[in-house]
Design a protein that fits this description.
There is one protein chain. This protein is mainly alpha-helical and 170 residues long. Helix content is 46%, strand content 6%. Strands 1-2 form a two-stranded parallel ribbon. It is elongated and about 60 Å long. This is ATPase, AAA family. Keywords: Coiled coil. InterPro entries: ATPase_AAA_core, P-loop_NTPase.
């Protein structure tokens, strides 16, 4: 968060409180600054930002809903947990979801760019069954998140522009 973390938090909550219709304040990777105050390694800036957050969220508000996301909610300070009314866990994608994610990213990052543009088809996809390949990859990527699957496909895109054919990457 740095030195400006406290003022940034106050600005966000001032803005949220001024909303006439209500809004959702979403904080991703919230464990980065909402961690336990008992940690010795916590910087003064982070501690001050946490205290500002706790000050601004001490009472219910009809103006905004606070939603926080974390891969490590056990790292939250007890006072943060006290302010969170609901906990919702999102599991990693199952096999069918992984296949759909892989297909989506393959089409977005490889198939569309390969067949569009001024130069026409840049990669040879006509003899490549990417639907079957994505199904095979979905079988072996258990435990991977959507973000990790996205990075995998982007890696394929990079390899597709190199001399080695895409088929040999997986």
């Amino acid at each position: 968060m740095g030195r400006d973390g406290v003022s940034a938090i106050h600005k966000v909550f001032d803005w949220a409180q001024s909303s006439r219709k209500g809004l959702i304040v979403f904080i991703d990777e919230a464990d980065a600054f909402l961690q336990k105050r008992s940690k010795e390694a916590m910087s003064e800036d982070t501690r001050a930002a946490l205290n500002a957050f706790l000050f601004r969220t001490g009472e219910q508000s009809r103006r905004f809903m606070l939603v926080v996301a974390s891969n490590q909610p056990e790292q939250f300070d007890w006072a943060v947990n006290d302010r969170l009314d609901q906990l919702v866990q999102f599991d990693l994608p199952g096999r069918p979801e992984r296949e759909r994610i892989l297909l989506q990213y393959f089409e977005e990052h490889i198939a569309k760019p390969a067949t569009s543009g001024a130069r026409g088809q840049r990669l040879k996809l006509s003899n490549f069954d990417w639907v079957e390949k994505c199904a095979q990859v979905a079988d072996i990527t258990e435990g991977m998140s959507g973000r990790e699957l996205s990075k995998l496909v982007i890696g394929w895109q990079v390899r597709g522009h190199q001399p080695m054919p895409l088929k040999t990457v997986c």
